[in-house]
Amino acid sequence: MRGIELMLIGIYALTSNNTIDYTLPGRYDWEENLEEVIKKSFLTSVQKEQEYNEIPKEIKVTSWDESLYSSISEVNGEYKGGGYALKVFDIIAAKLDFKYKIVLPEKPILGDNVTGVIGMLNQSKADVAVAFIPIIPEYLRFVQFSPILDYLEIAVLLERPLQSAIGSGLLAPFSRTVWICIFVSLALVGPIIYIVTSYRAYLWGRTKKDKYKFIDCVWFAYGAILKQGSALTPEADSNRLMFASWWIFITIITSFYTANLTAFLTLSEFTLAFTSVKDIVSQHKTWSAQQHYIVDITINRNDPEELTPLRTSYRQHRGIFYHISNKDNKTEKVASYLTNRRLFIDEIQFVENFIKNDYLNRTRQNMVEKKKCFYIKMPNPVFQQNRGFAYPSNSTISKIINRELLHLSESGIIQHIESVNRPMVTYCPLMLGSTERKLDNNDLELTYQVIATGFLFSLISFIVEVSQHYFRCRVCLCCADSCTCCKTRMKEPVSPSKRPQLPLPPPPTITTVPIKTEFSSFTKPPVIPIYDTIDNFKNSKIHYVNGRDYFVVHETTGERRLVPVRSPSALLFQYNH
Hints:
Blueprint (H helix, E strand, L loop, with lengths): L1 H14 L18 H21 L3 E5 L8 E5 L2 E5 L1 H13 L2 E4 L13 H7 L5 E7 L8 E3 L4 E10 L16 H28 L10 H12 L11 H31 L9 H6 L3 E5 L3 H6 L8 H8 L3 E4 L7 H8 L4 E6 H17 L4 H4 L2 E3 L5 E10 L5 H13 L2 H7 L25 H31 L8 H7 L49 E6 L2 E7 L5 E5 L3 H9 L1
Parallel strand pairs: 1-4, 1-5, 8-9, 8-10
Antiparallel strand pairs: 2-3, 5-12, 6-12, 7-10, 7-11, 7-12, 13-14, 14-15
Helix pairs in contact: 5-6, 5-7
Protein name: Ionotropic receptor 76b
Family: Belongs to the glutamate-gated ion channel (TC 1.A.10.1) family.
Subcellular location: Cell membrane
C-alpha cells in the first residue's frame, strides 16, 4: 500500500498548481536544509576568492643553499632561485598570479630567532621561506610551518673497506662467541681427561692401566682437531666413551667449519662493521658534517633523538663540523675530509650523487671495476626528519599557500620533482655482484700470521734450550764420566788426522793348498773369513743386486760371497768375526 500512496502523491504534485515547500524541518540535530547548504557553499567560494585577492602582487621570499633542494645565484644584480623548492613555488606563483623577490639573510644558514632564515621570518623581513626546512619543535616559538612536504634522510658516506666486517677467510665461518667456546673447550678437555683417567687408575688399586701423562692428554685433544691419530688406546669403557665424545665433537665442528668456509668464499655478502649511530660511537669512529646544517642543528637541540650518541661523540672530540660556503665546491671539500677512519654524515641525496659522480669520473679514467667504487654509503639512514616551508607566526598568506602545497603533495607532483635528478640505479652497492671469487692475501692473512707466530715461538724455544744447555755446562763441576758437560770439557781437542778410525780387518793369511794324501780327509783346510777381502778391491767387484751394492768376494775355495758395501750390516759382520 505504501508504494501506491507514493504514486498518488507524485501524480497530485505534478498536476496541482499549489506551491509546495520543499524544505522539511530537520528530523535530527545534524541535518540541514538545502538552502543552508547552498548558502554555505556560496559563502565559502566568496571567502576563497577574498583570500586569493589578499595575496599581494609581490611577496618577499628567503631561502638557503641546500644543494639540489634550493640554491640561489646572482644574475645581473638580481637573485635567481633554483632547486626543487623553487620549482614548486613557481607552480604556485603561476596559479595564484603573483611574483616574488628573493632576499637573503646575512648568514646563509638556518639560524635562530635572530640570525639566518628563521631570524628573517621572526623579524618579518620575509613573507615565506621557500626551502625544505626541518620541522623542529624548537622553531615553533618563532615561525609556523607548512604541511609536511617530504622527509629528510641522513646517510653516512665512507670509503669502501678492504674486507668485509664478517672477518678474514679463516675466522669468518664462526662468530666470536663460537671461537671462544672452542678454545675454552680445547684448553679444558686435556686436563679433564688426565684427571679422570688418573683418578680411575687410583681407585682401581693404583694400576697403570689407562693412566696417561698430562702432556699426552693435552696432545690428544690438540691432535683430534687436526684429524691425527693418537697412541692413546684406552681399555676401560668410561675412558673410551670420553675419548669418543671428544672425537665426535671435533668431527662435527670441523664439518661445519669446512662447509661455512666454502659458503663464505663463494656466497658471502659484503657487510660493514657498523649499521647505526651507536655502532659508530662504540667503535670510536671519527666523523664530520657540514656546519649549520641538519646534523649540527639536530645534535644541538634539547632532544637529538636518534642522534644523541653523536652529541656524546662530539663532546669527546671525535666529531668535526666544516664550514662550506656557497662559493666552495662541496664535492671537492667532502672528498678531502673523507679518510679511512673518518666518515661524512649528510643528506642522502647528496651522498648518492657524490658516489655517482665519483664512479663516473673513475670510469672515464678506465680504472678496473674494483677501483671504480671507492666510496659507499651505509645501507640504512641513521636519522629522518619531516620538512616543509616556513612562514612568520602572523602570516596572512600561509593558508592559501598551504592549500596549494597540500594539493601538490597529495597529487605526487612534489615527489616527482624530487625524483627527476636522483640516480635511477644504485651506484656502488655493498655487493658489487662479481661472478668470480678468488682468494687474495687478505683472506690468507691469518694463515701467514699463524705460521709466522709458530716459527717465532719455535725460535724462542730453541734459543732458550741452547742457553740452558750452555749455562748449565758452565756451572757443572761434577766431573762424572756420565756427565756430558764435564766429559766434553775434560776432553782435549783432537785433530782430524788423529781421530780414531774403525779397525781394519787383519791381513789375509797366506796358506798353501795341502797335497792330497790318504790322511787328507781327516784334516780340514783353513777357513778364510770373507771379511778379509772386503777392502781388497783388486780381488772384488761391485755388483748392483736388488737395489743395493755388494762386493763379490772370491774365496780361496772358489766360492763367491756377497757382502754389502759400507753398510751397518757389513761392519757388524766384520766385528762379530
